[in-house]
Amino acid sequence: MRIIPRLDIKNDNVIKGINFEGLRVVGNPNEIAKKYYEEGADELIYSDCVASLYGRNSLTDLVKRAVKDIFIPITVAGGIRTEIDANLLMQNGSDKLAINTELFNNEELGGQLVKKFGSQSIILSIQAKKISKNSWEAYKNFGRDKTNMDVIEWVKKMSVYNFGELLITSIDADGISNGFDVELFEKICQNTNIPIIACGGFGKLDHIKELKKYANVDAISLSKALHYKKITINEIKNFLKKIDE
Amino acid sequence: MKNFSLYGLPEKVSFCKLCVISNQRPSSTIEFKNSDGKNKSGIAIDDKGICDACSYTKKKLEIDWKKREKQLFEFLSKYRKNNGEPDCIVPSSGGKDSSFTAHILKNKYKMNPLTVTWAPSMWTEIGFENFNNLSKIGGINNLLITPNGKLHRYLTKTSFLNLGHPFQPFIHGQKIIGPKIAKKLNIQLIIYGENQAEYGNKLEDNLTYYMNNQFFCVDDNFNFKDIKFGGKSIQNILDEKNFNFNDFGAYLPLRKKEVLESKIQMIFLGYFEKWDPQECFYYASENTGFKPAKERSDGTYSKYTEIDDKIVPMHFYTTYIKFGIGRATYDAAQEIRNNKITREEGKNLVKKFDGEFPKTYFKDFLDYIDISENEFFKKIDDLRSPHLWEKKDSKWVLKQSII
Predict the structure, then answer these.
(1) How high is the ipTM of this complex?
(2) What is the C-alpha to C-alpha distance for residues A119 and B268, in angstroms, rounded to an integer?
(3) pLDDT over 80 (residue B207)
(4) How many CB pairs under 8 A join A and B?
């Protein structure tokens, strides 16, 4: 199972909210990324959390700088609206791109990007809000706006575009450190064969064990527990080795 | 049409250079004396182009918060009871600010707060959940006061139709209920979260931690029947409508004499603890089970401010119509001051969200005050000040905007 720290970026800072709300500053993106890389992260996700809000994408320079001393795959999420945006990020060192909001205006974009950069480089990102038992709605604009689209329906609908991975984040679990929304991941696993990155809710090692019981996810993504030094990547990796034995 | 403000505000709109607020932002009024809403004073913007709220933000940087914290501990020691009785009241709707206030008073300052809630006109689902969580998860005692709903609907309607201010009866209740309950329960201290001066009432209001009692009590010889809702006195309402004086019981403030005799004081926690609304949100999420709304509120980008009453989006829509200041402006101004976003970002957010029609609870609002859609839109157009609005291609646009 890959371990992928997620860095929510606003302007020059890594920030961390709760339930996709709040802009509390955690620190400098370059320093934090380097630290997680050195600690053994498998990949990194940079997520521009205000890109959709302001209609911009400001991560190009950050990625350009990061690839000088970080040698693991980098995914950029947030504000990718056109092939031009995508190109710019890929040319500057991004290995993968995750898209969400723009797909609700132009779902073809998924297909275009997969065609251009290959399935392995394009991730379908979904921000899932629990509506009722066994039902989740996809959100856009960093968890601010409804789409009236059921998450499972959306996964099925988007499967024609051959996304390489799914980055699924539970809005309800984000920043709460109280465990993954295991039912969400169980349900998605039952409905797709695309590899899944599970995000939102990691607080302690047992949460991974719980997740694995219900869902066969390929990777987990986490931020708060690492930012606030509740855990190290090494501890997670050792734990994974232990439970896999 | 002649250029003038229907509300007595400056004809020329000017914007603060540091945030996005304009001189049209009215200062708090004593709502129960508000007869026509026409003599408002706006937030002061100084000769350098900086508003009072931003000036205060600068001043906050010089405050020694450790010293203030100590000062509060000392102040509270005069009130702490430790006998099972509540020793202070925190007026609260279960929002992030009052949740923070009540919880920190209990846990850091070792007080025994009682939160007193003046019920929202129409609870939102998340608002009611947060209200319950403050007790269930935050461990805080609560007393919920739900005023006569039939009367409250009528007062809300009157306030909307006469002043374009549907939130007025709620604001009135929220201000008077703390002291009223304090007197009944023999509690001498009422603690609010932030001072409204954080948002631009007079700068000198922030120099003290006491709230001026004119906002929550009336003179000894004041006739209760002169209290006004939507500019209409209780006497007028009794003459015209099928309500009796007892129906107004919950709305009657204390008299000055009672406040003085019972030694009731009202203070602001924001004087002693550095006030930052987003940090209140984080604190409440972590300690009292507070959750943001499931989506951004109409008219703004945020999910964490004033989410408990379905009438709030309409309240901010009316401020947009009357003063050209919508919910995104209020949110962005606050977040700029607290260093969360830049002014440029704030301007973009204003452009994107300010004045967005409050569609989510529009039907609920019409049902609540029992008017038709036509009547509503006619009223809205009557509320537009000539110096702010003009019609272009049959659409209303702001003449003087920040964008």
Answers:
(1) 0.92
(2) 57
(3) no
(4) 50
State whether B295 and A18 contact (CB < 8 Å).
no
Residue B363 exposed, middle or buried by CB count within 10 Å (0-12, 13-18, 19+)? exposed
Q: Using a CB-CB distance cutoff of 8 angstroms, which residues of chain A are in contact with residue B341?
A: 23
Could you report the per-residue pLDDT of B30-81, keeping only the tens digit for each? 777 777 777 788 899 999 999 999 999 998 899 999 999 999 999 999 999 9
Which 3 state secondary structure label does DSSP give B112?
coil
Mean pLDDT of chain A: 95
Q: CB distance from A144 to chain B under 8 Å?
A: yes
Q: Give, as one character, the DSSP assignment of residue B45.
A: B
Domain ranges of chain B: 29-34+64-403
**pLDDT tens-digit profile of B241-265?**
999 999 999 999 999 999 999 999 9
Q: Which of A22, A129, A175 sits opposite B278 (nearest CB)?
A: A22
Domain range for A54 is 2-244
* Residue A220 belongs to domain with CATH number: 3.20.20.70
Q: Looking at the 3D structure of chain A, how many domains does it have?
A: 1
A2-10 and A13-18: which strand pairing?
antiparallel
| Residue to substitute from B296, B338, B339, B349, interface A, most A β-carbons within 10 A | B296
Q: Is A145 on the interface with B (CB under 8 A)?
A: yes
Residue A190 host element (H or E): helix A182-191
From B14's Cα to the closest Cα of chain A, the distance in A is 24
pLDDT at residue A52 is higher than 90: no
Which chain A residues touch B304 with a CB distance below 8 Å?
21-22
Residue B133 in contact with partner chain A when CB distance is under 8 A: no
| Residue B341 contacts A, CB cutoff 8 Å | yes
The burial class, CB within 10 Å (0-12 / 13-18 / 19+), for A42 is: middle
Instruction: Note whether A129 and A137 are within 8 A (CB).
Output: yes
d(C-alpha B11, C-alpha A51), whole Å: 37
Tell me the whole-structure pTM to 2 decimals: 0.94
pLDDT of residue B2: 57
Check whether A242 has a pLDDT greater than 80. yes
Cβ <8 Å between A24 and B342: no
Instruction: Say whether residue A24 is in contact with chain B using an 8 A CB cutoff.
Output: yes
